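Aim 2, interim progress: modelling of the protoporphyrin IX containing FE-bound target.
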Amino acid sequence: MDDITLARGLHILGVVVWIGGVSMVTTVILPAVRRFKNPEERVAFFEAVENRFAWQARFTTLLTGLSGFYMMYTLDLWERYTSSSYFWIHMMTAVWVIFTLVLFVLEPLFLHKWFHRRATTNPEGTFRIVQTLHWVLLTVSLVTVFVSLLGAHGTQF
Ligand code: HEM
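Predicted structure of the complex, ligand included:
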């Protein structure tokens, strides 16, 4: 097994755990939590789940980014950033940048406090916003997985 095959394997392992977790939170946990009768219990349970998942997401985002850039560097694929037919490379990078910003900068600095304050005063509205944002991120991520897989296996766009 060469280094590129290993990097590709780690890349996909990262994507599976990370985007799979986003899917679980979006399609199972958030809808279930929104049915909790007690608003305080709802906020406490969701924060406990998201806090645990955030650490997994941080680790897998790092793994995916490092392995992705390793492939870009070793295979010298940088000129793909200048071609629109490689839009899937732009999509992968954009998804990674968005999650990296949310997980490493916005969440610790601001999002966590914003959620706690707003969810305590307006749980319905806050959970609606959180669920919509999760659906947007999940949809973009799944489309990115699909087109990147096709692109990496020779589909010409
Ligand atoms: C810093 C961010 C990223 C970089 C630099 C990057 C780079 C790469 C590279 C160089 C490849 C191999 C392309 C080829 O063989 O022609 C690849 C494959 C792939 N990447 Fe990424 N990637 C990144 C993030 C992501 C993200 C966020 C996702 C999913 C949402 C993703 C999903 C995939 C998939 C599904 C493949 C195809 C693997 C295969 O079957 O060979 N990547 N990526």
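The pocket of protoporphyrin IX containing FE is lined by residues 8, 11-12, 15, 19, 64-65, 68-69, 71-72, 77, 92-93, 95-96, 141, 144-145, 148-149, 152 (CB under 6 Å). Helices lie at 3-33, 39-74, 87-121, 123-152.
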